Amino acid sequence: MQGKSLIIGASGQIGIELVIALRKLRGESNVIASDLRDPVAEELKNGPFEIVDTLDRKRIESVIDQYGITEVYQLAALLSATSEKFPDKAWNLNMNGLFNILEIAKEKKLEKVFWPSSIAVFGPTTPKDSTPQFTIMEPTSVYGISKLAGERWCEYYYQKFGVDVRSLRYPGLIGFRSEPGGGTTDYAVDIFYHAIENARYSSFLSANTMLPMMMMEDAIRATITIMGAPAEKIAIRSSYNIAGMSFTPAQLAAEISKHIVGFRMDYSPDFRQSLADSWPSSIDDSYARRDWGWLPSYHLDSLVSTMLAEIRKKKLAHCETP
Ligand code: NAD
Ligand code: SER
């Protein structure tokens, strides 16, 4: 019998795309989407959806029992910028949301758990270029502290209780299906909507802030690949570095200008600048490549052309809807 997946935080930027991809792969009825909020995306309405608060362990257990869930993707979290504004809420959600799943996985002997970490686990004392898998980790953001603690708990539950938990340190993710959810890398999504709308954008990060980024399609493929890999291939049980590309706001603007004549960018850095300054510029993902065959497929040029084409298509479809 095919196992069933539960996605918690399915109405978010990554969740929507992951549900779509997993349903294509495993069948609609085998992928149960869940979130605190109703699905806004039409794409989530073609299969089971449950309202689940990841802080409510009993509710998660009852959904797991109801559907016979065998693997859980725990995506619910507050992102970096929002976490700085609400540190208590971020710590509570990011840590206890993870604990609930790890405990349930231990008790119910779930086959697998996926939990995303982030480049925010690194800090200002980490080597910035080609940041290694194993290196100094002294994050200075609320979000980064919660993700680093989460990584240590994932490894602990694997070592002590045999919970098969797998994790990726996502870079900034760029997708066209939904609005970004309160992160420091959000500018690299927002910019496309403004560029199409009025050929101008004001960036909240400075022109030369180089950060690791990745096209959402690559991130989803990485997630599905690591979850599909044989357990013995997953040598790292904290979280894997994965890289797509690195660019600055100025480089992204220059690439967009090739498609939108007269596109103008100005810079007005805010509190998110200090978060970005504490993170790596580029990531060494050689362990992910070696252990489970990770390879990114998008570069800056293909990312920009895809984002512009897909957002234009979405806007057009929206205009045509009666
Ligand atoms: P998002 O903010 O778009 O989505 C998070 C979802 O979680 C939202 O739909 C929200 O309604 C839901 N949620 C919040 N509280 C909840 C609760 N108590 N119970 C159930 N659901 C709840 O975030 P995202 O960009 O999709 O990120 C998903 C995960 O990936 C997070 O753990 C984030 O830290 C991680 N991540 C994201 C990025 C990125 O660039 N987007 C990068 C690195 C790591
Ligand atoms: N993209 C995320 C953020 O900016 C990094 O985890 O919060």
Describe this structure as you would to a colleague.
The protein has 322 residues and is of the alpha/beta class. It has two domains: 4-172, 3-Layer(aba) Sandwich (Rossmann fold); 174-213 and 244-320, NAD(P)-binding Rossmann-like Domain (Rossmann fold), CATH 3.40.50.720. 44% of the residues lie in helices and 16% in strands. The chain has helices spanning 13-26, 57-67, 80-85, 87-108, 142-161, 187-198, 216-228, 249-257, 272-277, 286-292, 300-320; strands at residues 4-8, 31-35, 49-51, 69-74, 112-114, 117-118, 165-166, 168-170, 172-174, 200-203, 211-215, 240-241, 245-247, 264-267. The strands form four sheets. The protein has a six-stranded parallel sheet with strand order 3-2-1-4-5-7, with helices on both faces. Helix 1 links the parallel strand 1 (4-8) and strand 2. The longest helix is centred in the N-terminal third of the chain and has 22 residues, at 87-108. The mean pLDDT is 96. Serine (SER) binds at residues 79-80, 118, 120, 143, 172, 183-185.
Provide the fold topology.
Layout: E1 4-8, H1 13-26, E2 31-35, E3 49-51, H2 57-67, E4 69-74, H3 80-85, H4 87-108, E5 112-114, E6 117-118, H5 142-161, E7 165-166, E8 168-170, E9 172-174, H6 187-198, E10 200-203, E11 211-215, H7 216-228, E12 240-241, E13 245-247, H8 249-257, E14 264-267, H9 272-277, H10 286-292, H11 300-320
Parallel strand pairs: 1-2, 1-4, 2-3, 4-5, 5-7, 6-8, 8-12, 9-11, 10-14
Antiparallel strand pairs: 11-13
